[in-house]
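Appendix B. Extra example for self-study. Work through it before the problem class; the solution is given directly after the inputs so you can check yourself.
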Amino acid sequence: MSTPTETPSTPSRSRKGPTRSEVSKAAILEAARDEMAENGWRGFSVDSVAKRASASKQTIYRWWPSIGAMCVDAALALIPDAPDGGRDPQERITALIIPLEAAARTGHGHAVLRVALLAAADDKDAGEVWRAWVGRDIRQPLRMLLAELAAKRVIRRDFELDDVLEQLLGPIFHRLTISRAPVKEGFCAEQATAFLRTYAQF
Amino acid sequence: MSTPTETPSTPSRSRKGPTRSEVSKAAILEAARDEMAENGWRGFSVDSVAKRASASKQTIYRWWPSIGAMCVDAALALIPDAPDGGRDPQERITALIIPLEAAARTGHGHAVLRVALLAAADDKDAGEVWRAWVGRDIRQPLRMLLAELAAKRVIRRDFELDDVLEQLLGPIFHRLTISRAPVKEGFCAEQATAFLRTYAQF
Amino acid sequence: MSTPTETPSTPSRSRKGPTRSEVSKAAILEAARDEMAENGWRGFSVDSVAKRASASKQTIYRWWPSIGAMCVDAALALIPDAPDGGRDPQERITALIIPLEAAARTGHGHAVLRVALLAAADDKDAGEVWRAWVGRDIRQPLRMLLAELAAKRVIRRDFELDDVLEQLLGPIFHRLTISRAPVKEGFCAEQATAFLRTYAQF
Amino acid sequence: MSTPTETPSTPSRSRKGPTRSEVSKAAILEAARDEMAENGWRGFSVDSVAKRASASKQTIYRWWPSIGAMCVDAALALIPDAPDGGRDPQERITALIIPLEAAARTGHGHAVLRVALLAAADDKDAGEVWRAWVGRDIRQPLRMLLAELAAKRVIRRDFELDDVLEQLLGPIFHRLTISRAPVKEGFCAEQATAFLRTYAQF
DNA sequence: TATTAATCGAGACGGTACGTCGAGTCTTTAC
DNA sequence: GTAAAGACTCGACGTACCGTCTCGATTAATA
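Solution. Structure tokens for the complete assembly:
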């Protein structure tokens, strides 16, 4: 996992009354994933999630700013942490995006990720949650890595970080959403290879 | 345009009653594009389109199997025909995908294409319409072109057609949907260049 | 039958083209009766009648001012002519209303009459058609008969014709519509008897 | 009034969430009466009632099994309780049915009652609601009264309760629905008189 | 220990939209 | 000229959800 929503860093617990029920939260996210996989984004409904999780709609609206944000959260919970990449440039780039491949290859992860991407593209709040996660877990480490590779003259310097991000993520997103084809093992490694060939220092 | 909806193979007026009103069809697609740009995919409503087009919902459901299919049709009408590519391999590849760039750079084309992509990813019928268009206007010509380039030893032979398609289309789709950044002029040309570098014959 | 709508008395056949198709009319009324019996008044639809009769909706609207009027026509076609009443006052009164009883006791006549009454009560045109028929076939003969009976001192003179009509017709209409109980043989005779007892000359 | 809708046999607030909004209920019935008077039965629409009452359609369907049942409820709310009849047989019979006359003579009561009767005749649920009310407020007291009068030899014994009911109610229903004539004061008293003359013990 | 504030489930509420059906009109082809 | 076929706009159907609100029950810090 990657701590998608900020847990409020345990702020001294000053309020009266009961605190947030983590068991409710988990049940809601679990139910949300099932509903996402079954009904897609437009067919997704808060009522169904609440009923399936035996939760109240109010509880959902209390903790997420929009249902799209909840969908993204539910999907992010499926994405494992990035592994250590070793020393090889291709492996280090692959390591940044392979958690997505891993999530897409487990259970209904493919469908859940698809709906999360649709939510991020269609809903303001969901988009912010998604881009915040990508920024922290992929974009920022990628920026460091590319700077290092450029300094070592492994790759050229004339690239736009966001263009690279799109070339690395675009293909897998296309596969998850439009073509819906299964994500083969090694798919992300291929993208990393393609990137290095494209930007290789000649 | 690229004749998105099939013209009926029997052009001769054989049935009795009245025929499809082309005025209505145009008004509906126009209204659909406006609604798509304004409200996104989940916020898109048939009622609004019908009202804006002064059309009946029945008329919409009569001619499209689902609202998603109509959205894809509405977007496809924005995409111009592919230009002639000349002789240069990079230009010939670019020519296949540049109509998408052109559509994304005109008026509300960016938003309309985004919603069409979301519809294609979220709705079965819409996905079929979209993939049918891609298959005819991009995938099939691309297959021919790649076979020719491989025969001339410009590119390697060990590629999967669908992987290439995803590498060419994925980045622009990501930009249209997730990052929502404007599509710069020459964006598609860059993808073609990247592809040729990746698959260059060494 | 009682010639509910005026057939134009075979007027010289001067126009071109085919004249009104009597076979169409019969099919429409037959289909209408079936639909009335199956779906009631609020559930009755012109589309269904047209489809069942293999007729065009236009044909229906061409010949009846409203669907209610058509329903009343369809029901009136079920009502036989009044029999000759003989000399007995009770029998003569019974004879005026017994056609309704007869119609209500055949096939789906009960349901058809119910819907016709609902149409007559709910639709302006239907009401006029119904009241025209009642006026000609019941009210007018009843007026003559009551005048004769009053002259012979069989009944009192202080009655309102319309009150009498309501006392004679109200019970059978109530049975057809609200209670939906079967109309027993002799039901109308009982009403006639009750009327004579009520207005008997003492 | 006569408590048309069943008060729930469990008066104690046992369930969790909110209870039925009586404000909404009153607004809906009021709006329904207006719509009934304006548009009749076939022209009556739930959408219009909801809009006029500033209520949601869902709220209507939550509490009534059908729109017809709601129409009957709306009309029953106009009918006052039966007065005390005194000792005179004619007055005691009149007292049972005079609430209908009273309702029919106030404001748009005539039209509202008409539509309620049409609903009761055309819609299963509405018919049940109507017959339940008639059974409790008219038929049952009438049965007791007639038994008493028969025991006192005021009337004959050979009558069918439902036939009597039809003779008492049929005329006023005919007037409300088919003839649409105003209900004169004393109309119900006349029916009671007619009944007593008809069934008088000779 | 009692009070109090926040949480939770359940679900009613006013609304908007769904996809279908029907009304009444109009247009086209067949006879 | 009449009829079948059926497309058209418009409006209503009964259902599903949205996001908000209210209710009784529960839970934990405060008094």
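Self-check: Chain A is about 65% helix and 0% strand. If your reasoning did not lead you there, revisit section 3.
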